[in-house]
Structures are given as structure tokens and as C-alpha cells.
Design brief:
Blueprint: E1 4-5, H1 8-30, E2 35-41, H2 45-61, E3 64-70, H3 76-87, E4 94-97, H4 107-113, H5 125-133, H6 141-152, E5 161-165, H7 172-180, E6 189-193, H8 200-204, E7 209-212, E8 230-233, E9 237-241, E10 247-250, H9 255-258, E11 264-265, H10 273-291
Parallel strand pairs: 1-11, 2-3, 2-4, 5-6, 5-7, 7-8, 8-11
Antiparallel strand pairs: 9-10
Helix pairs in contact: 1-10, 2-10, 6-7, 6-10
């Protein structure tokens, strides 16, 4: 068996075309243009790359996107004041503060300061609580992207044995909750594995679907999965540089060996990654619709 490749690149492209049409309709019929502000503190190269990609995507879709870059020594109070400014700005529907922040800034205070109706990352406790309860809210972008990949690839999750490897607040925990819910791409029986799990393979071998989000290169190997498993690999790990100077990226799954047993698998890169930014755009459009009273 050779696995079907679940392309996040192609799925994200399709969703972005849908969003582009929706944004154009909002502008033409209702004179509404979604607005997104991204705030970057410091000069971390990876963060700069992520923010640039987010703004480029937003502009391509027709979203009014503004990037605010602050020096690494910006005070917490100044950052909070900036967030408050955009909380009060009706032209701004979504606020994203790029993580990680410099050590002298309390990440929790910053995330909690964002108005929940503009929290397009889905990290505010109000949105997290609503997600747990199954209420309308902004879903965290990466787990939301995983759901879309499962739905649009026709992967049946109802009654499936799902193993989530990883327990982060950004991916693992929300992923577990969403897979449990009575919803499309939900209704699964979910097991959580992490770095303290004893005999992880005994759990992963039972799984119909494995969602790997532990940040450990190639930790899921062929001997740890059963024939016909569906693999969603969230991990993006840099393991070196090519001769041309390009970063060599691998997932949390040993792709080359596991794809010979899996029914379907996401590649790294080109799997979950493109979906994360796309779901940020989807949340921003949702925020604009909510602000206008259309949701």
C-alpha cells in the first residue's frame, strides 16, 4: 500500500479562493473590508517570516492587513496600550500578536488583553472556553486546519480511534477537544500521548487516525502504526541545511517508511503548514461578518 498524499497546499488554495470570493462580495454588496493587524515584537527571523507570510496572504485575498513591528525592548505596558488601541479601532477586525514574545513580557497578559471578538488566533480564554463547550468561536488556526483537511479529504472520524501525540495549548489540547465533539470531523474516541507516555506504540498501533504534534523529528515510525492508518503530521522540525543552503524540514512522522503502510498521509512541508495561515484568514473574515452582525 502506498498512501494517498493529503496536500495542505492544494486544500489551502481551494479555501483561499472561496475566501477571496466572499471578501469581494462583502466589499461589493456591503462595503465591508475585513481588517487584520499583526504585531511583531523583536527581530526573530522565524517570526518575521511568519508575519510576512500572513500579511502577504491577507493582501492577496483582499483583506486590509497592517503589520506593526516593535523593538525587542518594547515594554509590556506599551504593547498592551497598542493592543487597546486596536481593540477600539472599528476598522480592525482581527488582532494577532506573533509568539514567542521577549522574556520580559508576560505572554498571558498580552493574549488576555486582546478583545475576544478580535482574537483571530483563538487563544483568549473566552474563545478556548467556548470551544470546549462547542459554542460559536474562533478555533485555533492549526487544529482548525487539521479539521478542514480531514473533512475535505473525506476521512471518516465518527467512531474512529484517534491518537493525538502532543499536549500543547496551541495544537494538542484543542485538537483532542475538537475530535471529541459532536460535530463534523468529530465524534471520535480519542487517546492523548505525550513525552511521559509509557509504551506509546501500544496506543498508536490501535489508531485509525494519528495526529502527530509533539515537535520530535520522525518519532512515529512504521512499526508504530497499523496498515491503513491516516496520518496528520503537524510537526515541522529543522534537522539541517542542504548544500544549497535551504533548511531541511521533517515532520514528527518518518514519512518514507510510514507512507508504505498508511492509507493517507500529510507531507512536511506542504501538509498542515499552509492550512494554518489560511484558517487565520478564515477567522478574520468571520470576525468581520460578526462585527457587521451577519453571524
Amino acid at each position: 500500500m502506498t498512501a494517498k498524499i493529503i496536500s495542505g497546499t492544494e486544500t489551502a488554495k481551494a479555501i483561499r479562493e472561496e475566501l477571496k470570493a466572499e471578501i469581494a462580495e462583502l466589499k461589493e454588496k456591503h462595503n465591508v473590508v475585513p481588517g487584520l493587524v499583526t504585531i511583531l515584537v523583536g527581530e526573530d527571523p522565524a517570526s518575521q517570516s511568519y508575519v510576512t507570510a500572513k500579511n502577504k496572504t491577507a493582501h492577496a485575498l483582499g483583506i486590509n492587513s497592517k503589520q506593526v513591528t516593535l523593538s525587542a525592548d518594547t515594554s509590556e505596558d506599551d504593547l498592551l496600550a497598542l493592543i487597546d488601541k486596536y481593540n477600539k479601532d472599528d476598522a480592525c477586525n482581527g488582532i494577532l500578536v506573533q509568539l514567542p514574545l521577549p522574556k520580559h513580557i508576560n505572554e498571558g497578559r498580552v493574549l488576555y488583553a486582546i478583545n475576544p471578538v478580535k482574537d483571530v488566533d483563538g487563544f483568549h480564554p473566552v474563545n478556548v472556553g467556548k470551544m470546549v463547550l462547542g459554542e460559536q468561536c474562533f478555533l485555533p488556526c492549526t487544529p482548525h486546519g487539521v479539521l478542514e483537511l480531514l473533512i475535505r479529504s473525506g476521512i471518516e472520524t465518527s467512531g474512529a480511534e484517534v491518537v493525538v501525540v502532543g499536549r500543547s495549548n496551541i495544537v494538542g489540547k484543542p485538537m483532542v477537544n475538537l475530535m471529541l465533539q459532536k460535530r463534523e470531523a468529530g465524534n471520535a474516541t480519542v487517546t492523548v500521548c505525550h513525552t511521559r507516555t509509557k509504551d506509546m506504540a501500544s496506543h498508536t498501533r490501535r489508531a485509525d487516525i494519528i495526529i502527530a504534534a509533539a515537535g520530535v523529528p520522525k518519532m512515529i515510525t512504521a512499526d508504530m502504526v497499523k496498515e491503513g492508518v491516516v496520518i496528520i503530521d503537524v510537526g515541522v522540525n529543522r534537522i539541517g541545511m542542504s548544500e544549497s543552503g535551504k533548511a531541511i524540514l521533517v515532520g514528527d512522522v518518518d514519512f518514507d517508511s510510514v507512507k508504505e503502510k498508511a492509507a493517507a498521509i500529510t507531507p512536511v512541508p506542504g501538509g498542515v503548514g499552509p492550512m494554518t495561515i489560511t484558517m487565520l484568514m478564515k477567522n478574520t473574515v468571520q470576525a468581520a461578518r460578526q462585527a457587521a452582525g451577519w453571524i
